[in-house]
């Protein structure tokens, strides 16, 4: 009996308990519902909760714990010769035993008997059933596999019986407790409150999961590569040690990637901030409501376009355009039609990312500028300042902290952006200052190191987690600081 | 200062305009410039939006047409099943020499000498290699077709398709062009005889991954995306709503809830690729879920969407006026009843709007999916969320890396489809808000 079937049975028991509880509550009231403390539905729900929740918890624990227990029992029962060869060998043997066990389930009695008296070859018999076996099977494996199968079957049956019994017991307990003064609603609401709390703790769990998982993988990485050579290394060259050659480890220097990330983010901000800020100022201070109601949503479309589309735009349009126009410019000036901007370059990635960021800058700043109290503007205009003077000398200084916060939030997006740089920035990790050349970023390298069939334990893949936690820390600092500024500023005028 | 002195003196002289010049002209010019900058910024922003959409649409609208070559295919028994074994061994039909059927029909239609090997080979290049599978499926579905002649629409090869749509510049020197003059002549023959036509491309909606652009489609990827969206909806909406109800209505104001608040705001701004790392390390390596599965993708996107939904739901709950709560409590409802019977239903339009926007965001997200192995060459429809699948934006990413002209067209076509989905979702959210949102 598999787990989902059991779960279904529990739910059926729960539903039955609900119906029974409700009708029992109605029966208890003798036709006068007002004598009940809680409505019949709550009594029913309480019965269903008693039937479902403890049983489900036991089911989950059993489903997780039983395989682990069986594994260790079977492993301990392996012959002494295998166990004495260390953990890796016994782990391998256990894997083989499991696939043998899988195969044994497909055999009929005659074949099993032939296996047991040694007249048939294990590997051939299993191969005939479509179960491939790595290496020659050994005699002890059949015994271990039989043990494994038997334990698994016992565990399954036991689990089904125990869980269903608990479910039934829960239902009976709840149904027996139904009486007119019983506070079923309070009980149900307490369970609901716990459920709500559990849901809100998922946010915390996600953060713990992010930090914990990346930290543990990063620590494994730092076991083979020293943190100093990662954080202060200037060469990124994660070579693979070819089979048989001297194991060259490769160099994992963070600095070239960080330089590329910050450079591209800087170019993007250089592009997005003036446009976004002026757009926000115009929309909040000058534009008629009609213009604003059209221009604002149109600009915000830019924020809704998936970043992969921007990446494609950079790859197909902006990159080739910059390359061709630089060739033309070069040709006009020097007569030599060679492009000096590469199709994949800091400039391409920066411009396209800048386009993506325009709506972030503009709508965040727009919100902040409109929060500046009317009185400040009126005072300035009343003293004879023009509108632009009011904006430059009164509104912007008042809004400045908020705008800085908004820009920091935007910068954190630029640093963490992936798809645009994957397609537009190139993969060459180098430290240089020419914006017309390709550079690469932290996010590009995370993608590069983790796509493809790699063994998970090598530093080549684990470095992605070290890069990830670096990225997480940078954006976290930017976000926390930005949110702090924005919040503090908002309080000033409220 | 002189003005002040003179105006306060009894002999008041009205100051001339020249003396009162406080740079009004200069200041007004600055005002106009400032205003122009603002307008220019908006125009530049809209210009980029226009260029972006124009690039995608102009590159992509042709992807919805596909050149086909309709040939009378003779399903000759001596080619498909020369030894007449199909009754005994149906798998023979799987491996029969179908390309030969195409070749024969094409040679006949073009009037080429069948003995001229080189020319015959060139001519068969014009038909997509997927024709083999197409004919095989016809024969296997209906073996009685063997021995008859049927008109079959075959896909034209990618470059021929591009040339037929006028995307290959024929003025370029022949050696630098993907399509030779000879093939162009043949194309003309086929077009004149009515065999080569452009038809609405249903393949782009139904096919899976393929290394041949003409046989590549987004069907499989779209199904993967659908699975993920369903998982996100089924998990993120209830969890998000439950979490926001707790935080907004029940949570005591203390350190812990403050921490959760800051936390949620931060999670909303964490780079999406970090969620991919989380998924890889926890769901795949720790929990042992399969790589490339829509289930893992759905879980990762759920975690990513949760903060958006929580923030939107809390705003919606906050917007329900306290009088509703007081009225319900005053009539004897418990706090739980007040919230679930009165506050939540009134906040629902806002919640759903936030959910749809979160879903739209999740639908376009690519980076985390790359890390959990969804960059996969998936040809067949995944039967369940546990099977290997890919997603719409990931398919776009994979096609964007292909060099051929025909793939640029396919990529743009897929982007158009993705954008249409997003527009529909966002419009739905806006309509929902307009129709149901109440202002108190």
Give structural notes.
The complex is a heterodimer of chains A (494) and B (440). Chain A has 494 residues and is an all-alpha fold. Chain A folds into three domains: 3-182, no CATH class; 183-224; 251-493, MetI-like fold. Chain A has 18 helices and two strands. The two termini of chain A are 62 Å apart. By secondary structure, chain B is mainly α. Helix content of chain B is 62%, strand content 5%. Chain B has 18 helices and three strands. Chain B has helices at residues 2-8, 24-60, 77-80, 98-110, 117-124, 131-141, 158-164, 181-192, 203-206, 219-250, 255-269, 272-286, 294-319, 322-330, 335-363, 367-371, 392-400, 405-436, and strands spanning 65-74, 149-155, 196-200. Chain B is extended, with a radius of gyration of 33 Å. The chains are: A mainly alpha (494), B mainly alpha (440). At the A-B interface, helix 8, helix 10, helix 11, helix 12 and helix 13 of A face helix 2, helix 10, helix 11, helix 12 and helix 13 of B.
């Amino acid at each position: 009996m598999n787990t989902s079937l059991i779960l279904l049975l529990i739910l059926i028991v729960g539903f039955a308990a609900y119906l029974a509880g409700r009708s029992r509550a109605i029966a208890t009231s003798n036709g006068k519902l007002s004598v009940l403390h809680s409505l019949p539905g709550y009594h029913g729900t309480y019965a269903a909760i008693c039937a479902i929740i403890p049983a489900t918890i036991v089911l989950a624990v059993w489903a997780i714990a039983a395989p682990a227990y069986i594994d260790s029992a079977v492993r301990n029962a392996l012959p002494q010769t295998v166990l004495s060869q260390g953990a890796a060998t016994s782990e391998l043997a256990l894997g083989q035993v499991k696939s043998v066990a899988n195969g044994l389930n497909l055999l009929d009695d005659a074949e099993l008997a032939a296996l047991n008296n040694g007249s048939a070859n294990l590997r051939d018999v299993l191969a005939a059933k479509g179960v491939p076996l790595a290496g020659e099977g050994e005699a002890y494996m059949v015994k271990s596999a039989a043990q494994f199968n038997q334990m698994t079957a016992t565990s399954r049956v036991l689990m089904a019986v125990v869980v269903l019994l608990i479910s039934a017991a829960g239902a009976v307990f709840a149904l027996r407790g139904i009486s007119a003064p019983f506070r079923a609603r309070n009980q149900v609401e307490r369970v609901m409150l716990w459920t709500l709390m559990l849901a809100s703790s998922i946010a915390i769990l996600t953060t713990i999961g992010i930090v914990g998982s990346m930290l543990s993988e990063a620590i494994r990485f730092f076991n083979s590569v020293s943190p100093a050579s990662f954080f202060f290394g200037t060469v990124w060259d994660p070579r693979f040690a070819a089979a048989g050659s001297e194991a060259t480890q490769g160099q994992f220097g963070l600095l070239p990637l960080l330089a590329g990330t910050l450079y591209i983010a800087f170019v993007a901000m250089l592009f997005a901030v003036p446009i976004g800020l002026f757009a926000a100022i115009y929309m909040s201070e000058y534009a008629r409501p009609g213009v604003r109601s059209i221009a604002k949503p149109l600009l915000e479309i830019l924020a809704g376009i998936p970043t992969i589309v921007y990446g494609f735009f950079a790859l197909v349009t902006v990159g080739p355009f910059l390359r061709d126009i630089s060739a033309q410019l070069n040709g006009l000036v020097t007569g030599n039609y060679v492009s000096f901007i590469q199709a994949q370059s800091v400039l391409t990635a920066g411009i396209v990312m800048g386009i993506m960021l325009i709506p972030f800058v503009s709508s965040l700043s727009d919100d902040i500028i409109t929060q500046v109290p009317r009185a400040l503007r009126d005072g300035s205009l009343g003293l004879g300042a023009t509108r632009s003077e009011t904006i430059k000398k009164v509104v912007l200084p008042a809004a400045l902290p908020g705008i800085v916060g908004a820009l920091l939030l935007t910068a954190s997006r630029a640093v963490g952006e992936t798809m645009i740089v994957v397609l537009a920035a190139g993969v060459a990790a180098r430290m240089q200052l020419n914006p017309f050349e390709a550079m690469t970023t932290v996010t590009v390298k995370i993608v590069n190191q983790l796509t493809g069939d790699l063994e998970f334990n090598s530093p080549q893949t684990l470095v992605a987690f070290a890069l990830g936690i670096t990225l997480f820390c940078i954006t976290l600092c930017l976000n926390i600081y930005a949110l702090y500024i924005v919040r503090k500023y908002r309080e000033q005028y409220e | 200062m002189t003005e002040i002195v003179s105006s306060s003196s009894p002999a008041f002289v009205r100051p001339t305009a020249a003396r009162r010049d406080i740079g009004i002209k200069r200041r007004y010019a600055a005002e106009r410039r400032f205003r122009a900058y603002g307008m220019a910024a908006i125009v530049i922003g809209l210009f980029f939006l226009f260029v972006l959409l124009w690039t995608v649409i102009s590159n992509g609208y042709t992807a919805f047409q596909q050149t086909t070559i309709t040939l009378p295919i003779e399903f000759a028994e001596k080619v498909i099943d020369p030894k007449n074994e199909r009754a005994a061994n149906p798998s023979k039909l799987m491996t029969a020499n179908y390309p030969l059927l195409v070749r024969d029909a094409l040679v006949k239609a073009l009037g080429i000498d069948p003995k001229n090997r080189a020319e015959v080979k060139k001519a068969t290049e014009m038909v997509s290699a997927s024709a083999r599978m197409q004919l095989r499926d016809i024969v296997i579905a209906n073996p009685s077709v063997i021995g008859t002649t049927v008109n079959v629409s075959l896909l034209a090869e990618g470059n021929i398709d591009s040339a037929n749509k006028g995307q290959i510049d024929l003025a370029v020197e022949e050696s630098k062009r993907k399509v030779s003059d000879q093939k162009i002549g043949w194309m003309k023959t086929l077009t004149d005889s009515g065999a080569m036509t452009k038809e609405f491309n249903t393949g782009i909606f139904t096919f899976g991954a393929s290394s041949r652009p003409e046989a590549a489609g987004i069907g499989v990827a779209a199904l993967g995306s659908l699975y993920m969206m369903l998982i996100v909806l089924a998990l993120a909406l209830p969890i998000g709503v439950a979490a926001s109800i707790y935080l907004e209505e029940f949570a005591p104001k203390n350190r812990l809830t403050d921490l959760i608040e800051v936390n949620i705001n931060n999670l909303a701004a964490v780079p999406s690729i970090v969620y991919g790392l989380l998924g890889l390390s926890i769901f795949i390596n720790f929990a042992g879920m399969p790589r490339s599965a829509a289930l893992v993708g759905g879980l990762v996107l759920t975690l990513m969407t949760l903060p958006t939904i929580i923030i939107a739901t809390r705003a919606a709950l906050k917007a329900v006026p306290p009088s509703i709560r007081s009225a319900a409590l005053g009539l004897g409802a418990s706090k739980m009843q007040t919230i679930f019977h009165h506050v939540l239903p009134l906040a629902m339009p806002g919640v759903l709007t936030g959910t749809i926007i979160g879903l739209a965001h999740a639908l376009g997200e690519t980076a985390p999916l790359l890390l959990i192995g969804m960059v996969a060459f998936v040809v067949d429809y995944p039967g369940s969320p546990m099977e290997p699948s890919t997603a719409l934006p990931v398919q776009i990413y994979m096609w964007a890396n292909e060099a051929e002209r025909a793939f640029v067209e396919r990529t743009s076509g897929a982007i158009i489809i993705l954008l249409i989905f997003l527009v529909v979702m966002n419009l739905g959210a806006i309509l929902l808000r307009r129709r149901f949102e109440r202002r108190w």
